[in-house]
């Protein structure tokens, strides 16, 4: 790895960092790189690995994770100076998606049609979730870490309650099931965004972006574009929806335009009717992200460029040119590994077990090369022996309270924006 840093080992005047991965060969230098979001300067490159789409994750501000494009391997880079090594984790199958909880306590991986859920610091496998025989294409945790959302190749989207799926009951016989399933899309889900209020915007190859709530099956709104939609994003206030299509167009859609209408068709000849758009790239817009202050939009494309757009002036963006097509984009505040590179690691990734709750034999993971460093271990004990109907009643009450709070928020929001 190479890092242009100041003499005291810190990267100065860098507020946010763009991590980018490309679809180059496994041994190609620069497949994973870090850039200054303000200036576009290259900060760091990571060698000897690659990143399949939807697999780039930042672990506790110290390490990067991504899955191999062609092999059943998870790549691991520790960014601290004393631990700057590349490791590989051998998995039971090719990983199609990766996601970490906001506090980096749990990691979820889509392997074929299953979702594997591990605790990061000790590698304990808590659950293997199965919904159907269709491949898992994308995983994301909600901003609070309460829920895990999964998108499948056939267009289905499932919602899993994290507390339920890591709740260990040795007497439990039935498999875990999702608490909600959304079946609105007719094609593969390409991307989805979870807002702070648990609203979801999902994009698909079926030319649509659909809005719905994480706990409800009913669709809130549907926008039909003129081409397959590859990426989607909402701002924090949930007033503007951004969508990038396969032709390189980026749409900015007013979510409060025609609130009574459920289905809205966006006609490029009528740009002023609730949306604007511009030709941002020469190929598909694969990924998008917003800066913390919501003033800039970052887009990444198959045309081998990443662009940083100032909202008030989208004419002359900051352009980062790459050697290969972009597969992942991650925009984060400057990681602490960049600010204090000589610190000792506080969080590492444990050996990922292959059987639920450590039932495998000794030495079964000899091919895994990650050292176990257990820090802040989360104690998970066996569930007390309670009646099944009592647990189910408590879950139903909790869901009712969540729904009531969501309805109150929606009502208050509508009254405020009148």
TrEMBL record:
One annotated GO biological process: DNA-templated DNA replication
Keyword Cell cycle: no
SMART domains: WD40
Keyword Repeat: yes
PROSITE patterns per UniProt: WD_REPEATS_1 (PS00678), WD_REPEATS_2 (PS50082), WD_REPEATS_REGION (PS50294)
One term under GO cellular component: nuclear pre-replicative complex
The organism's place on the tree of life at top rank: Eukaryota
PANTHER family membership: WD REPEAT-CONTAINING PROTEIN 18, WD-REPEAT PROTEIN 18
Protein name: WD repeat-containing protein 18-like
Residue runs in coiled coils: none
WD repeats: 129-164, 182-222, 278-311
Record keywords, A-Z: Repeat, WD repeat
Domain TEP-1 C-terminal beta-propeller intervals: 185-253
């Amino acid at each position: 790895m190479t890092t242009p840093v100041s003499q005291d080992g810190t990267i100065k005047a860098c507020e946010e960092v763009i991590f980018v991965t490309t679809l180059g060969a496994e041994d190609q230098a620069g497949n994973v790189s870090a850039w200054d979001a303000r200036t576009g300067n290259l900060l760091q490159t990571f060698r000897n690995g690659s990143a399949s789409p939807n697999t780039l994750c930042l672990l506790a501000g110290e390490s990067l994770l991504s899955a191999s494009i062609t092999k059943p391997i998870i790549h691991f880079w520790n960014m601290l100076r004393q631990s700057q090594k590349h490791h590989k984790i051998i998995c039971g199958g090719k990983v199609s998606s990766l996601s970490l909880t906001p506090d980096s306590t749990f990691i979820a991986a889509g392997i074929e049609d299953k979702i594997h859920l591990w605790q990061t610091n000790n590698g304990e496998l808590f659950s293997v979730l199965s919904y159907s025989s269709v491949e898992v294409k994308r995983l994301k945790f909600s901003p609070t870490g309460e829920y895990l959302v999964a998108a499948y190749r056939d267009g289905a989207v499932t919602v899993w309650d994290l507390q339920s799926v890591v709740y260990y009951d040795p007497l439990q016989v039935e498999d875990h099931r999702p608490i909600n399933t959304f079946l609105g899309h007719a094609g593969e889900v390409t991307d989805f965004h979870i807002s702070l209020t648990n609203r979801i915007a999902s994009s698909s190859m079926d030319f649509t972006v659909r809005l719905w709530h994480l706990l409800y099956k009913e669709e809130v709104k549907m926008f039909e574009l003129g081409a397959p939609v590859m990426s989607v994003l909402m701002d924090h206030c949930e007033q503007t929806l951004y969508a990038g299509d396969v032709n390189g167009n980026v749409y900015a859609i007013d979510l409060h335009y025609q609130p009574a209408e459920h289905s809205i068709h966006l006609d490029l000849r009528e740009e002023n009717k609730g949306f604007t758009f511009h030709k941002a790239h020469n190929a598909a817009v694969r990924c998008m992200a917003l800066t913390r202050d919501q003033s800039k939009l970052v887009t990444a494309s198959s045309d081998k460029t990443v662009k940083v757009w100032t909202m008030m002036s989208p004419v002359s963006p900051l352009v980062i040119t790459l050697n290969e097509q972009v597969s992942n984009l991650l925009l984060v505040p400057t990681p602490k590994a960049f600010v204090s590179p000589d610190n000792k690691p506080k969080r590492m990734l444990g050996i990922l077990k292959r059987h639920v709750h450590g039932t495998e034999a000794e030495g079964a993971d000899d091919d895994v090369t990650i050292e176990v460093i257990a820090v802040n271990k989360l104690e998970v004990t066996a569930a007390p022996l309670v009646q099944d109907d009592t647990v189910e009643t408590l879950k139903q009450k909790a869901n009712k309270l969540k729904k009531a709070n969501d309805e109150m928020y929606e009502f208050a929001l509508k009254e405020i924006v009148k």
